[in-house]
Structures are given as structure tokens and as C-alpha cells.
């Protein structure tokens, strides 16, 4: 590749990786704080896309407001799911928690997929663009859709706001405390029920924001969350389960790997390369390349 192609690869990788990071942070957060391997995470990406579609196309909302509304509605749905399903399970199931929640999230995934089919059918629901037009980068003729660029900056803003929230607010510090030592946090007065609900809801909101941002590129349909879920797990396995801050870097790494694979070998090879690297990580460094668990480790 010449220098202009390298530039194209880098820009594409950064734009793709930013949204991977947003998805992966939500998945890593709920694992790091609640020890839940959430296999319904992709379905919150999906409902975020649906919420944004209806807000933008049906109610004629501003693009930014549509994306924010999608995130807020997913936050509410996530809080309801945690209170109605995970909280009762926590009260009754102390043993085999990880396996039980894994099975529960699979059930939630199936229910959400089929619930969407029942409500809105299997028809693809997309939009032409939030912000029509393309941006030309450099002198090499590379053009990027406005939606992809704005979506990346929304992801950056959401990640920055989340890091600020964890570092600078009392509730954020409580979330970090619970991720490090749940019993100790409880002893000093942290409300575990509130923290668990908030954590799960925030995780769902971040997934929904990613789905809403990419609506013009990936239209809403019931099983659209499967691929983003796989990408999020690629990131978590790569950097270490529950390591929230490293998930930001991991999303960019996965975006770079996929983009280079696509440019070098063609369509379809990006998943092959990613899976090969994940297998090697599991074989030789199963704790991930950063190997630290906890929300605290991610933002300091």
C-alpha cells in the first residue's frame, strides 16, 4: 500500500474502532461490576437503532435528539430488565451466578429479538442519512460519510462523559468501589441495589447509542445485534474481561485489525484474522493483553 492507502486505513480504523469501543465499554462495565456475561448486549444495540428510527422518521426529531432519546429509552429498558430479572435472581442464586446470568441473558436476547419481530416485523427500517453528504479527507480522494464522522464524535463524547462520571462523581466512585470489593463497598454505605441497576442501565444505554449512531449505515432489524455483540466480546477477550478503560484501546485495535485485513485480503477476512488472534490470546494470555479487572483500572 502507498502512503495514501495507509492514511485511508488509519482513518477508517479509527472511525470503526470508536464505535466498537463504545459497545465494548458497556459490556465490560456490566461484567466488571456485576459479573454478568451479558449476551443480550447486542439486542440493546438493536433497540437503540429502532428507537432512533422512530424518533427521527416518525416523530421528526433532530438527529442528535433522536440519538439521545434512543440512549435514554434504552437506559430505562435496561433498568427495568435489571430490576425485574437480575435482582430477583441475585436474591435467590448466590451459587453458579455467572452461569445462571449467562443463561438468563441468552433468554433476554431471544425475547427481545422475537418481541421486536412481533411488534414491528422483520422489515429493515433505515434512513438515508442523518446528515447528508460526505467529507473529503486529504488529497487522495478519500471521502467519508458525514454520518460516520459525526457518529464517531458522538462515541468519543459519550466515552469521555462516562470516564468523567466514573472519576469525578460520587456515584461513579461508588461504581468503581463495587467493582473492586462489593462487600467492602456495602459496609461503607454504598447502596448495592441502586449501583447494580444503574450499572446495567448505563451499559444498555451505551450499546443503544452505538446502534442509533449507525442507523443510516446499518438499518434496524431484529437480529442486527449479533455481529456487534461478537465484536464487543473480541475486544473484551483481547484486553481482559471487565477492564473498562482498556476496552477503549481494544476497540481501536480491533477496528485497525479488521480494516487492515479488509484492505489486504478482501471482504470476509476481517473476521478470520480477528478470531485467529482471539484464539491465540486465549491460548497464551487468557487474562488478556492488559490482564486487569475492574472499573478502576480502566480509567486511571
Instruction: Write down the overall mean pLDDT.
Output: 89
Tell me the CATH topology.
ABC transporter involved in vitamin B12 uptake, BtuC
**Coarse shape:** globular
Structural class by helix and strand composition = mainly alpha
Strand arrangement across the biggest beta sheet: 1-2
Segments where pLDDT lies below 50 for 5+ residues? 296-300
Protein name: Branched-chain amino acid ABC transporter permease
GO molecular function, one term: transmembrane transporter activity
Family: Belongs to the binding-protein-dependent transport system permease family. LivHM subfamily.
Membrane topology: Multi-pass membrane protein
Mind explaining what this structure looks like?
Helix 2 packs parallel to helix 4, helix 3 crosses helix 4 and helix 9 crosses helix 10 (244-265). Strand 1 and strand 2 form a beta hairpin. The model is unreliable at 296-300 (pLDDT under 50). This protein has twelve helices and two strands; from the N terminus they run ααααββαααααααα. It has one domain (3-299): Orthogonal Bundle (ABC transporter involved in vitamin B12 uptake, BtuC). 74% of the residues lie in helices and 3% in strands.
